[in-house]
Amino acid sequence: MPISAHSVCAAIRDEIIAGAFPPGSRLTEDLLARRYGVSRVPVREALRTLNSEGFVTTRPHAGAFVAELTSREAADLLDVRLLLEPLGAARAAQRRTEAHLRVLRGLVRLGRRRVTQGHLSDLRQLGDWFHETLAQAADSRGLADLLTQLRRKVAWLYAVEPAARATDWQERGALVDAVARGDAERARALAAREAERSAALHRLRRGAPLRPEGV
Q1: Are 88 and 194 in contact (CB under 8 A)?
Q2: Model-level pTM greater than 0.70?
Q3: Could you tell me which residue, 19 or 3, shows the higher pLDDT?
Q4: Which of 73, 168, 179, 201 has its CA 20 to 30 A from that of 43?
Q5: Pairing between strand 56-59 and 63-66?
């Protein structure tokens, strides 16, 4: 079956986040098409999507390049996340389904188990799944898309020590309880507290895609 532009977009994005394509490097349609075994058409569509998400920039008569952000823009990502994640949690408390609750509770149990077992390397992916499910529970396509893009960009720019992630799961359990009760204000407050603590623990990755201010 032909590979869709969506799949090509996800593959390029994942490689950008992983650092396979360095900041400022050129993304050539021909080379990407050969890399993923597709024609240039899905690559072109994927680059347009990544440009709209902020992972890629295009330059007139030069083509597409991996984006570079300023340190101010990087800091702004954390600030925007501080605003949106509490909103998403409050909406989830008002709109969640039983299916969302089952997944969220299962992830909390799994996260706590991994912490007890000392399997800290699993916590990042579990945390991503938790927040993606919470965003979906808000039942707002636009809000969920914004939160997903923000988390991807933060993962691209920032690193968090695994030990720091281990402290999150007790509070996430309390957040799920608030969502289950429909307590939007409590859910908002708990999500804000986690986001604030998380922001304080983030450090820019070595080689993060930053350019000087004003450039």
Answers
A1: no
A2: yes
A3: 19
A4: 73
A5: antiparallel
